[in-house]
Amino acid sequence: MSDKARGRTGSSLGGRLGGRPAGHPGGRTREGTSARAAGAREPGALAQLAAALRTPAGAAQPLFAQAPKAWQRALPYLLVGTVVVSLLPTTIAVLTNDYGMDGGWAGALGVAQTVPLLLAVTRPLQAWLLVLVADTFGAVLLTQADKVAGHSWPWTPMAVVGYLVLMACLGLRESNRTLVGVWLVTGALGAVLGFFQPRDTMNTAALLFVLGGVVLALTGALRGLGDARQRIAEQESISEAERSRRTLLEERARIARELHDVVAHHMSVITVQADSAPYRLPGMPEPVQEEFAAIAASARESLGEMRRLLTVLRAPDGAGGADGPGGGGADGERAPQPGIGRLQQLVEATVRAGQPVELSLAAGAARAAPPAVDLSAYRIVQEALANVVRHAPGAPTRVSVTVDDDEVLVLVVNGPAARDAVVEPDGPGTGHGLVGMRERVRLTGGTLDTGPLPDGGFRVAARLPLQAGAGTAGTDGTDGTDGTDGTDGTDGTDDTNEERS
Prior knowledge:
The chain is built from 15 helices and 7 strands. It is an alpha/beta fold. Helix 4 (about 70-95) runs antiparallel to helix 7.
């Protein structure tokens, strides 16, 4: 790596890991850009009204209660108020002039048939009962009117219009069973009133029955569509939460399988040393020999417990079984776990695959790191390079591993994808990569900082303490967020290389 590249790497590493919060300016700029882009794609007023029309309202909520703007939420009141203001004087005038009804009765009947429509925005079923009683009472009064002959009966034209408005409000709020009941009651009442029809009148019972059924069917279908979409959205949310939880559990099981090999090695060494101590150190007192024998027995018992646990974790039906990510089959399980010393081979294999990668590896890093940190550092670099190959093929990439007295610093930085590179549309990824990095960092008590760069690239920076518990366990760049939602706590925004796996 050139001096210039080393300088840029060191500067970036120091800036990302030197106590700087994960919400760096680049991330905020990206979020601001995303917010402006979302605002530019905001749906129009008609689309918002259509969505509000399909969104079912709660039992105590008015129609359009979920609309995003105040004027849209007030629109049902405005429309129903306009209908009432229009129908009230028209009803009184028609009943008085055309039907010959007394002015007092006409005014009372007009108020009873139209004013309850205002209740339909929030309580359509109660409004329907009031209007139905008023319309029925009006039909009875019209049988005694002087000029009823030659006019509509039992439902006047104004009553039909108001009733259809009421049917629309009912269809958007009530269940299908309620709508069918309302429709049948309307038809039955019209049929009963037909036996008392005055002479020379036009029966409108069938007309209201048909038109009311059409309105109820259309508005009920809209409400049903909204209910279906809401259930689908809830199910998708539940499925996403379960997928994230499953991903997290699979990654933890994978890490547990790998750590078994590391811990088992040390436990085996302890067993051998304790068993061989009386032969390597002759003349050892009897109590000391018994103590070494107890140590060897405890170590063997611990190894047996670990092997039984590993059998469960490696079962084919378990999370991330033997052939899962990191399982690698039987041959892979018998192979030694990799570490920092094998990063050169990993980088060379990536370069042979056509990805330009530069490695800066501090001398003695592999010997200084304890086994858990050694394995975690290798896996973090491996996952980061896999993401680069998948999401930014051809992008120049720098890998830096340095070590000081307290910690190992791992940095993987890539630029934007090459212009002539073809990225296969393999979807948003499995979600294992960033989850695995976070879990490995939590295991060692370190910190993780990931996110997009201003030039369109991406960076992964990890701090792994050399001493267990030296770092802040659970810190992954966002105040120790557990991240059970399956996303890395430091990069909730999508990067320019698509969503990292």
